[in-house]
Structures are given as C-alpha cells and as structure tokens.
Fold this sequence. Notes:
Elements lengths: L8 H15 L10 E7 L3 E7 L2 E7 L7 H16 L17 E5 L2 E11 L4 E2 L9 H21 L10 E2 L1 H5 L16 H21 L6 E4 L8 E4 L2 E4 L6 E4 H9 L8 H13 L6 H4 L2 H18 L4 H24 L1
Parallel strand pairs: 7-11
Antiparallel strand pairs: 1-2, 2-3, 3-5, 4-5, 6-9, 8-11, 9-10
Helix pairs in contact: 3-6, 3-7, 5-10, 6-9, 9-10
Amino acid sequence: MTDLYQLTPKEQTDRLKKLATKALESWDMGPDIELELIKHRENSVYKIKTANGKYVLRVHRFGYHTDDALRSELQWMEALSQNGIPTPDIIKTRQGESFTIVDMEGVPEPRQVDLFAWIDGVPISDLKDNSDEPAMHRTIGTLMARMHNQANQWTPPRGFTRHAWDIEGLLGNHPVWGRFWEMGHFTDEQRAKIHKTRAVAKEQLNVFGQGPDRYGLIHCDFLPENMLKDGDMVRIIDFDDCGFGWHMFDIVTSLFTYSYRPNFKAIKNAFVEGYRSQRDLPEDQLKYFDFFLLLRVMTSCGWLHTRPETETARKFSAGLAKNLMVRVNAYLEKN
C-alpha cells in the first residue's frame, strides 16, 4: 500500500476519513453518521452530522503533541470557559476520556482524535468589510488580554505540560516548528546572517525577561478565523499551538497577516486599545513589536520547511523566505 505521505491531499484525507469513522466508535453517535472535511492542514478536521446533533472531530497530526500535552490543551480550554471566555464544549468518550487514540491500515501511525460540540457561529473575519477591520481587531485585543489575565491567575492541574515558545522554542537548535534556517531558499551567506540574528536575538530576549507581566500561557494562533460569533457570544477555537510564551509573541501572531495592509497602523492601534482596556501593555514592551514580528516570520518559515507536503508550504515558502531576509537585514543594521 502506498505510503500516506506520498499521496495527494485528497487521497490522504480519504484515508484519514476512514480513521475518523473508526474513531467515532469511542462515542455514542448512533446510526446514520455523515462526515464532511472542513480543513486538512496541521490536523484533519471533520464536521460530523448525526440524528442527535452536529460535532467537530479532529484527527491530529502525528507526533506534534504527546498525550499529556493534548490533555493539557483541553484542560486549559475548559478552564477558560469556566472563567467566562467561551471555548468549544469537549465531548468525552464513553470511557470519560477527552480524546481517543486510533490506528488503522493505510495510516502509518496511531492518531489522537478528539470531539467537540458544533458551534453555529461565523468566524468574525467573515462579519466585516474593510471599514470594520479596526473594530474587529479591537475586539480581538480585548479577548486576548482577558485570556492572558486568566492564564496568569490560573493554577494548572498537576501534570499540565505544553511546549514553550521561549528562547529555545523560537531560536534554539530545535525550534518548536522546525529549523527555519535550513529552508532550501536560503544561500550560505543568508544562513550566516540568520545565525548571527539568532545569536543577537537570544541576548535581547534574555534582557526582555520572562516576568508574569509579559510571559505565560498563550494561544499562539489568535486569528479572526479562530473566533466564532454565535449570537452575542464569541467562542475561541483551535488551541493546537498554545503553550508558554511571551504575550508580545501572541500579539504579533494575531496581527502578522495584516502587517502588509495599507491600514495596518489603524488595525494595530485598535488592537492595542482593546488589549489595554483589560490589561496593561506598557510602551517598554510594545516597542519590541517589530522584533517579535521578526521572530514570528522565523517560526513560520520553520512551519513551512517541516511541512512541505502541505498546499500552504508550496504556495508561500519562497515569498516568506524572501520576507525573512528583508527583516534579518534590517535587524542586523540596527543591532
């Protein structure tokens, strides 16, 4: 049988759909189940329709999270909901577990699979026209600040573990998302500049520090499409990348894709205004915005480099590598 990773995206999702169907045996779904692919990127996400309701099922990418790390992700989601920051309701298996592990022929590794209640919401990115963008980002900034406040005040349960977007996770020899400097788009001269930037940036992060006013649990994918508006409620989804990191890294992650817009200044100012309505964000932290944006571009290059099979990597790798070198050159000129 052909290796899963040598197949087209359609062929891959066809196999993973069979695994998802098998996984549903761990829940009491009843007869006449329909599965519809929503997204195939980091994970494969399916909409589940049954006679008793609708759900969202995730088939996780192999090896990204340990079982303890996935369990911790779901624990934080539940804690946020209990603190008034709604997240999707987790549907426990018949055995009372927050996820199950499934293997089957044609998929070379066992996969973690979890299930959530369906949300009849719309991504807030789809509720706007361009004139509404600042208002949308003001809302996002407000929600992020509330999440950072909850994380700072929350005591995680024993055994809680998530990866860290710290110095090693961003700039070490084995970053969370991969060794971005190994992208094939860079020359040897460019790689030398990247390594020099890594060394200087590590020193800068050490100076910046990891006090609770600037470092803690972060979502790390706090984008408009990951916030679903359901009536008056906005639920935050997709905690797959959450971990321990700098609040400024969370902020630039949210704004990264908008940094190329002509109205980016208005978007950024609105986000900061919303954030500051709930939590302090002093100027001595905000001045590091462009620095953390550089780190975000580095990590995104790592993601693309280690996931060459994805459509996203094929489409954006060359352009983002070029963007990184522009930022690296500008950073080295100042440092």
